[in-house]
Specification:
Elements (H helix, E strand, L loop, with lengths): L5 E4 L1 H12 L6 E4 L18 H12 L7 H22 L3 E4 L4 H13 L6 E4 L18 H6 L2 E2 L2 H17 L3 E4 L5 E4 L5 H11 L1 E3 H11 L7 H13 L3 E6 L2 E7 L1
Parallel strand pairs: 1-2, 1-3, 3-4
Antiparallel strand pairs: 4-5, 6-7, 8-10, 9-10
Helix pairs in contact: 2-9, 4-6, 7-8, 8-9
Length: 258
């Protein structure tokens, strides 16, 4: 009897996959991959003690002081994911990487190609592009079993190409990464979206921070930006005296321009 598969997916699709596995629609178990490799430094992110990586996430999450528990919840989920990942490698069960047009998903696949044992079958579950960018989190639940049925076993050569990408981005990755129209990984500097935040406030005058972040997210057509990342960039701009924060009791702060 063949080993039960392990599905690697980022949190949004992982929740749906877990339900599909619990219902018997899909075989195996789901590992919710808590890191998002599309942003921040990658140099030490696969070490046992990734201090630079965790320092980055602490800075990002501490910027949201209206959600004081968020950083602790993330750290707990992060380490649970890391432990589950190491155990999955030891089992050498077939791995299914659910990786669409999100740079974080793609780099997760690259990391698996680098670190999974050569004897471990590695499958890529992809998203049909149809001329538009798409990631796993956008897929409706009924589509996921169809995508699983089309999963492709990667060859040794393909795995080495992916592993080489992982090694490259570990050395050079420190900004915001995205997949271009040709499916190639690209990177913007970490402060690339600061001007968009400043310009939006100059036009609006004053907005709740969530409205400002949502405005920039909604206009972005390359990277899959997270609200946490943009909240952090707003804090950096406030700390630098470029933007001004006004606290509101019981609500998220307002942001305006000096």
């Amino acid at each position: 009897m063949s080993a039960s598969p392990i599905h690697f997916a980022m949190p949004s699709p992982a929740a749906t996959l877990q339900q599909l596995c619990a219902d018997g629609v899909l075989p195996g178990e789901v590992l919710c991959f808590q890191d998002d490799f599309s942003q921040g430094p990658l140099a030490d992110c696969d070490l046992i003690d990734p201090q630079a990586r965790m320092g980055y996430w602490n800075a990002v999450l501490w910027a949201q002081d209206w959600w004081p528990q968020q950083d602790e919840d993330f750290v707990q989920a992060y380490w649970a994911s890391r432990k589950a990942q190491l155990k999955a490698f030891e089992r050498r069960a077939p791995l299914y990487a659910w990786a669409g047009g999100h740079a974080g998903e793609w780099l997760m696949l690259c990391m698996l190609a680098e670190h999974a044992h050569a004897d471990t079958p590695l499958y890529h579950v992809a998203v049909p592009q149809h001329g538009q960018r798409s990631c796993m989190g956008m897929q409706p639940p009924p589509v996921l079993p169809e995508l699983f049925a089309q999963a492709r076993l990667l060859t040794a050569g393909e795995r080495e190409q992916l592993a080489a990408q992982w090694r490259y981005w570990q050395e050079h990755g420190d900004g915001i990464r995205y997949l271009d129209a040709q499916g190639a990984l690209q990177q913007h500097p970490i402060d690339h979206y600061d001007n968009a935040l400043v310009n939006a406030i100059k036009v609006a005058g004053k907005w709740p921070v969530a409205r400002l972040v949502g405005e920039v997210m909604g206009r972005e057509e390359q990277a899959w930006l997270s609200d946490s990342f943009l909240f952090w960039r707003v804090k950096k701009l406030v700390d630098a005296g470029v933007l001004k924060r006004e606290n509101v009791p019981g609500a998220m702060p307002l942001i305006c321009h000096w």
